[in-house]
Every structure is written in structure tokens, then in C-alpha cells.
Amino acid sequence: MVEVEERTATEARQGERDNRILRVLVISITVAAVLAVVGYFYVFAEDDADLAKPTPAVETTDGPATSAQ
Questions:
Q1: pLDDT of residue 41
Q2: Which of 20, 38, 40, 41 minimizes the C-alpha distance to 30?
Q3: For 4-60, what is each residue's pLDDT tens digit?
Q4: How far apart are the C-alpha atoms of 21 and 26, rounded to whole Å?
Q5: What CA–CA distance (Å, rounded) separates 30 from 38?
Q6: How far apart, in whole angstroms, are the C-alpha atoms of residue 15 and residue 55?
Q7: Which residue ranges traverse the bilayer (predicted)?
Q8: CA distance 38 to 34
Q9: Which of 7, 22, 24, 29 is within CB 3.0–4.6 Å of 11 for a Cys-Cys bond?
Q10: Spatial separation of the C-alpha atoms in residues 29 and 31, rounded to whole Å
Q11: What pLDDT score was predicted for residue 34?
Q12: What is the sign, positive or negative, of the torsion defined by CA atoms of 13, 17, 22, 28?
């Protein structure tokens, strides 16, 4: 005959997954934090030399504006 182990309701709900879930949670938080830091530095690692140049005007004016009446 098969022997059945008696458990409380809390033990039955948690089962044997207790440590495994904690490890998955810790690993996933660590991976998310590393990816956030890498992404932050990836975005701000662009070359800023082009930002030092003056920005050309979109429109050019040939003289003072005149009002048409």
C-alpha cells in the first residue's frame, strides 16, 4: 500500500516549489537589472560630437519680413 504524507493546507499550496520559485525570482530580477543598466549605457553611449556642431536653420530668410496688405 502507498503511504500518504500528511500536510497542512499551507504546505500543500506551497508544495516543493518553494526554493525553485525563489531562485527564479532572484535570477529574473538580476537579469532585468543588468539589462536595464546595459540599456541605459547603450542609449547614452552615442557619439556626442554631432551635438557640438551648430544646428542649421530649417528656413532661410533673404531679408526683413514684409507684411502684405
A1: 84
A2: 38
A3: 778 777 776 665 666 778 888 999 999 999 999 998 888 776 666 666 677 666 766
A4: 9
A5: 12
A6: 64
A7: 21-43
A8: 6
A9: 7
A10: 5
A11: 97
A12: negative
Residue 29 pLDDT: 97
Is the pLDDT score of 69 beyond 60? no
- How far is it, in rounded angstroms, from Cα 69 to Cα 66? 9
**Residue pointed to by grid coordinates 551648430:** 54
Q: Give the pLDDT confidence score for residue 68 in this predicted structure.
A: 61
Task: Determine the length of the chain.
Answer: 69
Look at residues 14, 19, 12 and name the one whose alpha carbon lies nearest to residue 4: 12
In single-letter form, the type of residue at position 66 comes to: T
- Whether 67 has a pLDDT exceeding 80, the answer reads no
**Residues 6 or more apart from 4 whose CB is under 8 A from it?**
none
Rounded CA gap, 58 and 55, in Å? 9
